Amino acid sequence: MMLAMALAHRVRARGGGGGGVRGGPARQPPGLCSLLAAIALFLVMIGSATLGIERAVDAVHNTRGDRLPAYNSAATAWKLGGASSFASVTDGFEARVGGVAVELFPKNGAQRVVQRDIHDPRSDVVRTPTTHVLYARIGRTPGTSMGEVVLVNPGEKVTVTVGVPSGDANANRPSADASRAARFAPFQCSVWSYSKSSVRDRVDCDSCPTVPSSESSARCQVACDDGGGRRRFIAQRHWVKAVTLVVEELNAGESDSASSSTRVALPLRPITPEQCVLSYHTDVRTKQEWNSALEVRGFCETQEGRTPPSASVDLVLNVRSSKDPVVVGGLLSDCSYDFGLSARENASSAIFLLMLAAVCIVAAAYWGRATGACTRNNLSDAEYNAAVRGDSNRTSSAPNRTRRSPPSGQRMRAYYVTGQSDYNDPYEQEVMRREARRQERMERQSEQRDSAQNIVEMAEVRRGEHRNGLASV
Description:
Layout: H1 2-13, E1 20-23, H2 32-61, H3 63-89, E2 94-97, E3 100-103, E4 105-107, E5 133-138, H4 145-150, E6 158-163, E7 182-184, E8 187-195, E9 202-204, H5 215-225, E10 231-249, E11 264-268, E12 278-286, H6 293-300, H7 303-306, E13 315-321, H8 325-332, H9 343-371, E14 374-379, H10 381-394, E15 412-417, H11 426-472
Helix pairs in contact: 1-9, 2-9, 3-8
């Protein structure tokens, strides 16, 4: 499309074969539409070249090819017995959240209650139609034993352990003790201070520097400690709605110091954001009467502040094996569960984008030749007169053109036009249009005068007839 536009512009600029020389002013500058089209062409060219180079670099690095084999190996081992082995060893296990027992239910992912596979849709990924996950849902209901356990103050952590129920005498299973527990904060509350006069002026009161003498600390103190009615305070509350507890499963040949006769070790991995094990429900709350960050923090520690606005924001526990493909895929893909484009896809995108950039360059070159087809030369008076005489001899059959003489003592600018036998001078066209409008105006005035004269003559004739009639009477 861009190439066709450039060619059409070139055809309009060049009327045919032959050459000639003309005097007169420089060619008129391009209009607004041409300028906007040139800018758009330049932006498309730059964007296509940049994206094409990025895709080419991705195709060379091929991060998908480096990470996908590890995931496929884990998924294949999980399908061939890893899931069933984890299910048999963890049969009857329970979780303890803050010391309160929570029953765990096995899920295989068929009902879509738990995730059984990664989100990568490409065909080179090994699929796991079923899995094995221990599942539990804890309601955040005030007044209940479990609700009070998870409805804690902001930043307060709870301890979770996974193991056999208390009193189980099975010696082949490790018990759930505190040394193998995982800890996380079910509720977080951050305070933000916003200026009422400027949307850009906002301060995270929880990230203020602790050095009193620093400039940032002084700004935080002014914005967070004493708003003075000029600032608005917001409480951003975050409730953990799902947590994945990863059980470190031993590989073949390894042993557990607590229970060497088992293949499953119950120590849980530490819960960190890099583990892809936490998902949150976020809510924003503000009140007109809040005048400092201290008041907002006090609200977050009340029962109203700790309770989520929706009763459906429960805490879901998912207990997975460290060999689960979902756990492995999350770590390999940086929690995106997608390994990105393949080397072939990146190469195809790079080729297309770079070709598009090349087409833009070709279109720009054609356009530049079309708009810059005149080559400016500063000629002396003698050279200019010789050029004009040569042009008159070559175009003697053509109609006379209006020419402007250069001012005395100055050189005339001349342009050599390539591939153009009959160039339409904009100055001459404007003179012809003005002459045509003058002729039309004179013709309309002449017609109006003739009409007025005819009316006067008819009136005189009638007046004479009327007088003759009166004389005869």
